[in-house]
Amino acid sequence: MKRKALISGITGQDGSYLAESLLEKDYEVHGVVRRVAIEDPEHRLWRIKHILGDIELHPASLESYPSIFRLMRAVQPNEVYHLAAQSFVSYSFEDEFSTLNTNINGTHYMLSSVREVASRARFYFAGSSEMIGEANVTPQNELTPFHPRSAYGISKVAGFELTRNYREAYRLHASSGILFNHESPRRGFEFVTRKITSHAAKVKLGLSNELRLGNLDAYRDWCHAGEYVRAMWLMLQQDAPDDYVIATGEAHSVREFLEIAFRYVGLDYQDYVVSDPQLYRPADVTLLRGDSSKARARLGWSYNRSFLDLVREMVDRDLEYYKKA
Ligand code: F7E
Fold this sequence. Notes:
By secondary structure, this protein is α/β, with parallel strands linked by helices. 43% of the residues lie in helices and 16% in strands.
């Protein structure tokens, strides 16, 4: 019998890579999607368009416990990957309330449904380096104290603690990945990496001549998202559930990303970038660099791609995209 996986957030960057990788492993893949997404596949399902015939999508809302509960009962998954969230940190400053409601309740509904009707399922929670936030040590690992700097980070801390509590109180096989930034050509345009690579391509092709940005001096540990989904799966294959930092161990500034992306297309970013005070966050995270020794030792997970290749792949794909547009 095929193993069944249920993914919330299957239409997103990570969900799409995870679905592909589970299909390759011969899983039966189910996805939770909002009804509006099913009604608008062209815009909302573009990342999974090529696998729509191989997966099963179910309309449900992370804001509705009954819908999640019924879905869990019907699918009876062996593995649950809870990736769905309001994941844009900047937006969480504009609307703290919906970020907290969706992210915390959504995780709670998923966990409670698993406990009630699929208690043998293994559960993965997408934690984030934004839980660590403004760290007092570098690099950061599983023992680094949390100091989130946004409603988004706070909502992820709550989700992480809920996951841990379900593991300890109800013996659920529930694990969290503390994932540092992960990017790819499937990244949303609102995140800084894709914003930069899409503008580098547009400027190169004469479609734009300005890029408005905020804080260029933030450092992030940027990895390719396609490599992170392997770590999620590995966590659920362990005998015992646990929490793991997934990171490359290298940090680069937004400015470095920018320089590399523009230089790659033969341009100097300083001729195009405009500093926009509106794009600075009320509280930003200065430096994130993760230590994933535990994941390497226990999961056998490793990461071998270079930062340079990640930036170039994203720029190349954006050049192709805007040439066709
Ligand atoms: O910002 C700075 C901004 O929005 C990165 C999410 O996936 O990773 C991501 O969170 C940095 C910040 O990602 C702009 O101030 C400057 O310092 O690409 P970002 P993020 O906030 O690090 C973590 C791990 C997650 O869990 C999140 O879900 O770039 N920055 N100028 C800018 N950022 C944006 N978005 N736009 C700008 O114009």
